[in-house]
Amino acid sequence: METQSAKNSSEFVNSNLEEMYSDEQIKRRVAQLGAQITTDYAGKDLVLIGVLKGSCVFMADLMREIDLHLTIDFMAVSSYKDGMVSTGDVEILKDLTNPIRGKDVIVCEDIVDTGLTLFRLTEILGSRGANSIKIATLLDKPEPRIKKELKIDYCGFQIPNEFVVGYGLDAAGRYRNLPFIAVVKNPAIA
Ligand code: IMP
Ligand code: MG
After folding, report:
1. Separation of 55 CA from ligand 2 center, angstroms?
2. How far apart are CA 151 and CA 187, in angstroms?
3. pTM here?
4. What is the CA angle 154-128-147, rounded to 5?
5. Are 72 and 96 a contacting pair, CB within 8 Å?
6. Which of 88, 90, 165, 187 has its CA 20 to 30 A from that of 8?
7. Active-site residues: which are they?
8. What integer pLDDT is reported at residue 116 of this predicted model?
9. At 3, is the secondary structure helix, strand, or coil?
10. Ion ligand 2 residue ranges (Cβ < 5 Å)
11. Distance of CA 72 from the midpoint of ligand 1 (Å)
12. Judging by beta carbons within 10 Å of its beta carbon (0-12, 13-18, 19+), is residue 107 exposed, middle or buried?
């Protein structure tokens, strides 16, 4: 079914996409997360770390909803997948610009699927002397999680085990600029 947002974004009118969360719904939820972080981090030395590339849209919106002084940094990692399953090995493709020793870190992700990438990444960051490390993710797919005891501190939406794009999330590099989140009905043709 074609949604209002899809109609307004003619580049993306595509019967293979079905809107899951509209841009207004995302904005409201991100504002709630920002307000919660503002309360939780008052008086702390907050650094937001974006995991490139998918988190860029979420982090850009989230940081403008946080009414505190903060700094930002970015990492790029590649997770090794054995077929469709993440092995949990992570290679750092781009590291942080600044040290995080003594800082209160929130790692921002687009989506947590198996959780293995963030589990390993928070282990790596944990060895660098941060005062605290928490996780903010726009989306969480709890269902396929390989049990890794990953604690998600701030979550936008929990979603079913479907492939989604938009608002930073991609299919083969495309759709990151879609302003809403959509399910890809047939990922093979996305
Ligand atoms: P995992 O939690 O280690 O399995 O890896 C999560 C990463 O897989 C995310 O940062 C995304 O790059 C990618 N990913 C997982 N599910 C989706 C999806 O539905 N759409 C787009 N990317 C996804
Ligand atoms: Mg990612």
Report:
1. 7
2. 29
3. 0.90
4. 45
5. no
6. 187
7. 113
8. 86
9. coil
10. 54
11. 22
12. buried
